[in-house]
Amino acid sequence: MSHMSFPGEDASGSFYMPFESQASSSAFQMNPLSLHPPRTPRTSLSSAHPQSHGNGFSGYEGSSAKEESNTIAEVDEEEDLEEDSARLKLAQTRVSNEEVWREMFLTSNGRDKAFVRIRRCSGALKSNWARNQKLIQYGLKLYLLFHNSVASTQLLHRSKPPAWEQELRSRLSSTVDGLSRTRKCLLLFNWLAPLTAILARRTESMSMGGASKPKAPTPFLHTLMHAPPPVLLDLVHSSSDDVYTFSLLGLLSKKTGERAARFSDWCWLLATLVGLVENGVERQMIGGLQHEVHSRLYAESMANPGKSKPLSSATAKQDEKEMARLQKQDFWLQITRTKLLMDLIFVSYDVFRLQRWRDTVKTCAGLTSGMLSAWKLYDRHQQTLLKAATTLAA
């Protein structure tokens, strides 16, 4: 059982957020109120600079004074791009891997990826970005599985293992169980985040009537039923997780906890499927933007270089930078899709009660999911440090 996360998970916490918001004319937002909205790619250069690409190369023709001013402006822009690239390379030499790991462990987000993660936010005990993929827990489980399988072979099989080996197994098993229970306790009250979002929408709807004609308060049940499905699913999922945790702590009966765990697994399965669908939509959008930029690059390469060569070179560098950004976004979307597939495999064993290779598959899937989450978090902290170092270098 795990806390669910949508693919936008990574906006302020967990999840890496490689995209930036678009303009209202080109924005894509599947669930406006969702705490895990789909990442929206930044407006492409075709919409940001229509005068450069919208009419082909006819804009290069005109008076000599206008051509000279445009050329000077584009040359300055090309110099800025080169300076940014130089500052970035200088920043990369200053930021070491050890510094990135230090920043990760200084934050509660990073500690979860390597151990158990919490994220504090104002007005709530923990944000909805907390995850339960723990590298230490699944690493120990994988070691125990490997150790038991090797020890059971005919070559190394012994009628009675030594005392130190039995004690090691017992200690590691106890550590894994302790980490699992600690994570569940740290994820308590995660339902406060979706509940706050629902109440915020209720307050917003009341204020839309204006000061002269205040709107009557909407019943909470009505607001709850009209909340976006991902937010409502998150609320129900977090609540069922808490019920299961209270059962583990002895506050509720074991039967109640088992039912809550079963219901929570179904919520996690649905959330993972929703995440895979949104991830596919985002990848289609990124693919379309890549095709658009690639078409512009091809058109610029086929144009007559002539006297507009400095201008064409600057715009080509902009398009190449845009293409690199889109390729990076698509790469992290593929990483997110792989993580969601691992989560789907993991939760499917619990939901459908599969038994074949259960421990091995669940352990490998959980460890892979945790490693991918840690990788994304590492990259996000690295980009933050590089940005700060670039600003200082400027």
From TrEMBL:
<feature type="compositionally biased region" description="Acidic residues">
    <location>
        <begin position="74"/>
        <end position="83"/>
    </location>
</feature>
<keyword id="KW-0962">Peroxisome biogenesis</keyword>
<dbReference type="GO" id="GO:0016559">
    <property type="term" value="P:peroxisome fission"/>
</dbReference>
<keyword id="KW-0576">Peroxisome</keyword>
<dbReference type="InterPro" id="IPR008733">
    <property type="entry name" value="PEX11"/>
</dbReference>
<dbReference type="Pfam" id="PF05648">
    <property type="entry name" value="PEX11"/>
</dbReference>
<keyword id="KW-0472">Membrane</keyword>
<feature type="compositionally biased region" description="Polar residues">
    <location>
        <begin position="41"/>
        <end position="55"/>
    </location>
</feature>
<dbReference type="GO" id="GO:0005778">
    <property type="term" value="C:peroxisomal membrane"/>
</dbReference>
<protein>
    <recommendedName>
        <fullName>Peroxisomal biogenesis factor 11</fullName>
    </recommendedName>
</protein>
<feature type="region of interest" description="Disordered">
    <location>
        <begin position="26"/>
        <end position="84"/>
    </location>
</feature>
